[in-house]
Design goal:
The chain has 86 residues and is mainly α. It has three helices and no strands. 83% of the residues lie in helices and 0% in strands. The chain is elongated, with a radius of gyration of 17 Å. The N and C termini lie far apart (56 Å).
């Protein structure tokens, strides 16, 4: 455990940020799964589900939770699945 006041604060801030990042990552994974299920089941709103997932991916990349190339790869994979089913 840190003794210096600023180090104590950094521990608290890091813990809070970790929780926020986990929350965003969890939401991201949920939206991607929903989009994949919508594509596989050929749901009427599959394009909308992909749009929401792509938005979540972009938000995660903007916050630095995902690397920009990882975000591009995930978006590309979703688009490829969507267009293959069309």
């Amino acid at each position: 455990m840190p003794n210096i006041k600023s180090a104590k604060k950094r521990v608290k801030v890091a813990a809070a940020k970790t929780l926020q990042n986990k929350m965003i990552n969890s939401q991201l994974k949920t939206e991607i799964k929903k989009a994949n299920v919508a594509i596989e089941s050929n749901a009427a709103d599959k394009a909308e589900a992909v749009k929401v997932a792509v938005k979540r991916i972009d938000q995660a990349a903007a916050k630095g939770i995902l690397h920009k190339n990882t975000a591009a790869r995930k978006k590309s994979a979703l688009d490829k699945k969507l267009n293959a089913g069309a």
